[in-house]
Design a protein that fits this description.
Layout (H helix, E strand, L loop, with lengths): L6 E5 L3 H13 L3 E5 L5 H8 L3 E5 L7 H9 L6 E5 L4 H9 L4 E4 L4 H15 L12 E4 L4 E4 L2 E2 L4 H12 L5 E2 H8 L8 H18 L6 E4 L3 E4 L3
Parallel strand pairs: 1-2, 1-3, 3-4, 4-5
Antiparallel strand pairs: 6-7, 7-8, 9-11, 10-11
Helix pairs in contact: 1-5, 6-8
Length: 228
């Protein structure tokens, strides 16, 4: 694999669709691997650690939502869910689980590539160098964050929020910008949703280090992170 070449796992039980998508992905510069059976996905991901996964929900052996739930228990690998089912219950369930994006079949391979590149660009924004003495430490591979040496019990959304703040300490983010950072599904979400996530993240940070306020509200604008 060429240096810097990203690896995409295509989970799809329709061979023709998978073949076309793989061909387009390869032409776009990605390395691809195809899996058609649901039971093979988790073991392969754990062994090979792809950069992104396209996940069909209707699979033999194990459905995509079940796979996604287990995946999120140990990894933040970006996932684009794909399904021919368009009923709202499946759509909302997939998005609430924390999918990075969601497409309905049939989709254009070019659209899938565009969405893939967008997600990879977003997560590639480098974190500032994490010195060993930094009070906040983030391990993206393990989905772990520590504050003053104490491991924080964060949900995937809370981890992404902290990760984004930590990427640019001192930068003020609007609620819309934060929602764009943690969701790529273009749904309408109220300000209360992000405020609720921020409240929970603040509480967990406060429990680990009560004498420091890390996430500060900027009246009429949004939030920013300040740390020692």
């Amino acid at each position: 694999m060429e240096s810097g070449q990203k690896s995409i796992l295509i989970v799809e039980d329709e061979p023709k669709l998978a073949e076309v998508l793989a061909e387009y992905m390869q032409q776009a510069g990605f390395k691809t691997h195809w899996i058609s059976h649901g039971l093979e996905v988790i073991p392969w991901v754990k062994e090979h650690k792809p950069d992104l996964l396209t996940l069909d929900l209707m699979l033999p052996g194990r459905d995509g939502i079940d796979i996604f739930r287990e995946l999120r228990s140990f990894s933040l690998i970006p996932v684009i869910m794909a399904t021919a089912r368009v009923d709202e219950i499946d759509r909302l369930l997939g998005l609430e689980l924390g999918a990075d994006d969601y497409v309905c079949k049939p989709y254009s391979p070019r659209e899938m590539i565009a969405r893939t590149k967008n997600i990879l660009r977003r997560i590639a924004r480098p974190l500032q160098e994490q010195a060993s003495e930094s009070v906040i430490q983030i391990d993206n591979e393990r989905m772990e964050a520590r504050l003053n040496g104490i491991r924080l019990d964060l949900t995937p959304v809370e981890f992404r929020l902290l990760h984004q703040f930590f990427s640019n300490p001192g930068r003020v983010y609007s609620r819309t910008q934060l929602l764009d950072c943690i969701y790529d599904d273009y749904r309408i979400v109220t300000d209360r949703a992000i405020d609720s996530h921020i409240k929970n993240l603040r509480r967990k940070l406060h429990e680990a280090m009560p004498d420091q306020e890390f996430i500060k509200s900027i009246y009429g604008v949004g939030y920013k992170l300040e740390f020692l």
